[in-house]
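Hey, does this match?
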Amino acid sequence: MWKNYHIIETQDELKKVLAESGPNARIIAGGTDLMVEIRNGKWNTLETIIDISRMAESSEIFQDTEGRIHLGCLTTHNDVIASPLLRDNAFPLYQACWHVATPQIRNTATVAGNLVTASPANDTICPLMALDAELLLSSEQGERLVKMSDFYLGVRKTVLRTDEFLKEIIFPAIGANQRGNFKKSGLRRAQVIATLNATVILEMLGKTVQNAKITLGSVAPTIIHAPEAEALLVGKQLDLSIIQEAAKLAEKAAKPISDIRASEAYRSHMVEVLVENALIEIAAGIVENIPDKPAVLSTRKSLPEHPAAGWTGLLVQTEINGENYDFEAWSEARTLLDFIREKVGLTGTKSGCEEGECGACTLFLDDKAVLSCLTPWQRAHNAKIKTVEGVAVGEKLHPVQQAFIDHGAVQCGYCTPGFIMSSVKLLEEHAQPSEEVIKQALSGNLCRCTGYYKIVEAVEDAAEKMVR
């Protein structure tokens, strides 16, 4: 676990700390990968955590005068999903972010973090590679622009130096004559690492393909293209025979392995299936049905101000359930879940998997539903936190809490606080969500007793009563 913890507020400060910290330091933004790796003992030599989550200048999403789209290094997956610009101009990336994990994880996990982790199974690398993205790397020595195709050296290996950080992701917007599609194969609908994924982007002139990009993930040490399939499509119309031939050529480009998630044979077969399906949908004009206003379990209107200048780490000042607290800081490297339960004494937030898989530890951090087991406890400093103890109004239960009782939406009850928190935030965000939106919003919370039906009924009932 870490010994030193820096809260960074500006990019200049980040560059300075990186230059001084050396190889035994790690940047943390969302923490959804790093915190699990730390818990599992991967970083035994780790000395310093550099927390950039308050670096407000780094969350922008914008399009420049040349039509290129820029994502700041703190752009989360839910920021992508909430962006009309990206839905209209980078739909394969939008799809990939939609299929990453769960709403709570998407609220904190950054696209930049997904890229830097450099796993070939990471979903956003595949569409960004197809979009010919470039990465702006920054340090005290200056900045350099690196093509994504040159960024990766192997599994979890990149050209990023220890004194650099990924400042921006830059790529051209998809044009009016282009069509794109992202496909993912996983063992379940949510909270799943891809067994493989694929992206197809075609430039069309009428019904004829002028240019083709096909990228494949989790079938080689890095994301790869399928060059023979791309070449075949150019100058052709998308009839079924051409689509099937291209899909077979894409399968030949893959060099998969067998691991815990899938066998080599399965991955090889599924490359053909995913590419064929992606091309068929493009040819038919079928677009994945993602809600116009998907639930992101966040009601944050703007970036919160978290002044931390001069913080010594000796005192934590925080607001929890509407009350202000001062705590003597811990010397241990622990999580926000530990802090809330052990330091504050609020035990409603439950410790389940402690790997971001179950949602039992969900709470609100600055109006976002997050997983406290994947959040360093130092994030409590100058933050606004709400736990399940804070959703009731005095002695009166929140309508969601009452509905869970009325509908018998509990059995063992261990997962219930997490479900309550996700449901409350959902109804703050969507007054009358559809059944499908409710299920999507609760996809980050697992229950092994109720079968979920009563939980969905309870949320529907609470929604009805809250709008009366």
